[in-house]
């Protein structure tokens, strides 16, 4: 449930709960559910700050997620309630609008923290706009951070093996007519057999979105590890059999443990 105040809020807070259809074979909130919640909270906060989606589209600008890293502490289960806080953190590397997220249980137990980088684009020309193109200003929230890590480019392992192929269809698309950011996370999770999730659980995930995936486009996902990091996998999605990466990602694992 979004915050009820109509006054601009520098920090946005929502109360969520775990839905049956968002859980996995271990009755845990899926990684993609975290991404969907962050997308929704970011849109709600933007609206509260005066940047409603229809108005921004009319002005020829919209935010798209470019990079995100999340660290998982615990995974909520049915019927747990979740508190999600989010706030903008200013501009980084001259082009990225940054935004952080904090997931906690109703009792205050930390579930996950994340930091993200967004690009402002012209949705009609599909071209990037500079942050100075945005009218008005966003709260800076100086000194606040949930995950103080810079979102750099991902160095993939030298050897990558194709593991699955997906063709973008209706269920993958969002209102920008391209594959939604959370769908990539579902594809990444599908790179691993179900037995893997009985032994391991994600401890962190970073994904960099490089090129949008349009309807009918085929993406081949490839997987690799480094010899010194067997519980860290690099993943990339190649567009239509080319060397162009739609996305690059890294995911770290730890031994499966029962919910606290």
Q: Helix amount, in percent?
A: 10-25%
In CATH, the homologous superfamily of the largest domain goes by the name: Hotdog Thioesterase
* Unreliable spans: none
Average pLDDT: 96
Task: Describe the fold and architecture.
The protein has 260 residues and is mainly β. It has two domains: 1-150, Thiol Ester Dehydrase, Chain A; 153-260, Roll (Thiol Ester Dehydrase, Chain A). The protein has helices at residues 31-48, 53-58, 181-189, 196-199, and strands spanning 12-17, 62-72, 81-92, 96-105, 110-122, 127-129, 161-167, 200-209, 218-226, 229-239, 245-255. Strands 1, 2, 3, 4, 5, 6, 7, 8, 9, 10 and 11 form an eleven-stranded antiparallel β-sheet that branches. Strand 3 (81-92) and strand 4 (96-105) form a beta hairpin. Helix 1 (31-48) runs antiparallel to helix 3 (181-189). It is globular and about 50 Å long. The two termini are 25 Å apart.
Defining traits:
Thiol Ester Dehydrase, Chain A, eleven-stranded antiparallel sheet, 2 domains, 4 helices, mainly beta, 40% strand, 260 residues
Please outline what is shown here.
The chain has helices at about 30-50, 55-60, 180-190, 195-200, and strands spanning about 10-15, 60-70, 80-90, 95-105, 110-120, 125-130, 160-165, 200-210, 220-225, 230-240, 245-255. With about 260 residues, the chain is mostly beta strands. The longest helix is centred in the first third of the chain and has 18 residues, at about 30-50.
In terms of topology, how is this protein built?
Elements lengths: L11 E6 L13 H18 L4 H6 L3 E11 L8 E12 L3 E10 L4 E13 L4 E3 L31 E7 L13 H9 L6 H4 E10 L8 E9 L2 E11 L5 E11 L5
Helix pairs in contact: 1-3
